[in-house]
UniProtKB/TrEMBL annotation:
Originating organism: Brassica campestris (Field mustard)
Pfam families, sorted: Peptidase_S10 (PF00450)
Alphabetized GO MF terms: serine-type carboxypeptidase activity
PANTHER family in UniProt: SERINE CARBOXYPEPTIDASE-LIKE 19, SERINE PROTEASE FAMILY S10 SERINE CARBOXYPEPTIDASE
Gene Ontology biological process terms, A to Z: proteolysis
Superkingdom, taxonomy of origin: Eukaryota
Family indicated by similarity: Belongs to the peptidase S10 family.
InterPro entries in UniProt: AB_hydrolase_fold, Peptidase_S10
Protein name: Sinapoylglucose:choline sinapoyltransferase
Length: 367
């Protein structure tokens, strides 16, 4: 498997994975002030990091450069592209060859937009009835987030809606709703020797905590990731700073962060006006976290003409990988449908991130 992916990356692209903001992954800040960050600060910090990285690695400067991300980074990536473009125009060096654009998977763009579209997604996917959807549209006026509690009809309808979807795993609605508590990653720190007796200890830890996802769950890998990431041999191989504390998959509570980009759409507009940048937007068609209907809605609000209308894109001559549409501003929207090449994932549609559909995502990336 390692050889396969190494060969793929050498043939297709060099990929730089950036842990941002400071405090995510194995990254850290040396001072309290450096740790304090925000959406907009991240944009400037990433631009500064990239230019510094290219100074140290000038052999990559001539390569076409793409920026990519998924989920919440949908608010960050278009801002990074704009910042890089502005820096290039000002003559900052080294120049970054950003002409080729950026790619986003299941991107968040505007506060409350995505939650509001979960209702329409639930209806399109058959999770709620026609009657309930019509009632919600009529009584809530298309706004299903932070609803006025005095609107009893809307509140009652939303209660019925939440009862219908309460046992749905919203990152991939076809999967079992296995509860996953990311704090469980810390359990790896309580085990005495995870390197020498991992199977026994994993079994004991499952027996001790009924809230752990069982091995049959897709989310069980998130629990296992903490054992791998906190293993000293792994850290040594990755060159992680000695004395670095516990790694956790979602370190949202320990980073002093300000969410100050409430609408990323203007970044997309500004980037499209540059003419040389294109944007690819990808949505898993079974993701309820950032539903494809929300991405469709904000793209439609830009009023760009369609140059290549809705059509399937193919994995093979007889297998549809998803559907796509291209707009005049060099923006392409594509969905990820399903795969039958992996036995465990044989019946799954596209989920919230690329991990649910690696074959389609790698093929799309290569194209």
């Amino acid at each position: 498997m390692c050889n396969m992916y190494t060969q793929f990356f050498f043939q297709v692209a060099n990929i730089l994975y950036l842990e941002s903001p400071a405090g995510s992954g194995y990254s850290y800040a040396k001072t309290r002030r450096a740790a304090e960050t925000s959406d907009t600060k991240q944009i400037h910090q990433i631009d500064q990091f990239l230019r510094s990285w290219f100074v140290d690695h000038p052999e990559f400067i001539s390569n076409s450069f793409y920026v990519g991300g998924d989920s919440y980074s949908g608010k960050i990536v278009p801002g990074v592209v704009q910042q890089i473009s502005l820096g290039n125009e000002k003559g900052l060096t080294p120049l970054i060859n950003i002409q080729q654009g950026y790619v986003l998977g299941n991107p968040a763009v505007r506060t409350n937009l995505e939650p509001n579209h979960r209702v329409s997604f639930a209806h399109r996917m058959g999770l709620i009835s026609d009657e309930l959807h019509e009632s919600l549209e009529r009584n809530c006026g298309g706004k299903f987030f932070n609803v006025d509690p005095s609107n009893a009809k809307c509140s009652n309808g939303l209660l019925a809606y939440h009862q219908c979807i309460s046992e749905i795993y919203i990152e991939q609605i076809l999967l079992p709703n296995c509860k996953v508590d990311y704090v469980l990653a810390d359990i790896s720190q309580t085990l005495p020797n995870i390197r020498t007796s991992r199977r026994r200890e994993l079994k004991e830890s499952r027996n001790d905590s009924s809230s752990l996802p069982p091995p049959s769950c897709f989310t069980y890998r998130y629990f296992l990731s903490a054992f791998w990431a906190n293993d000293e041999n792994v850290r040594r191989a990755l060159g992680v700073k000695k004395g670095f504390g516990k790694w956790s998959r979602c370190n949202t509570q320990n980073i002093p962060y300000t969410y100050d980009i409430h609408n990323a759409i203007p970044y997309h507009v500004n980037n499209s006006l540059k003419c040389y940048s294109f944007c690819i937007l990808i949505n898993g068609d079974h993701d309820m976290m950032i539903p494809f209907s929300s991405t469709e809605a904000w793209i439609k609000s830009l009023n760009y003409s369609i140059v290549d209308d809705w059509r399937p894109w193919m994995m093979t001559s007889n297998q549809v990988a998803g559907y796509t549409r291209t707009y005049a501003n060099k923006m392409t929207f594509a969905t990820i449908k399903a795969t039958n090449s992996k036995p465990f994932l044989s019946s799954l549609g596209g989920g919230h991130t690329a991990e649910y559909n690696p074959d389609q995502c790698s093929l799309m990336f290569k194209r």
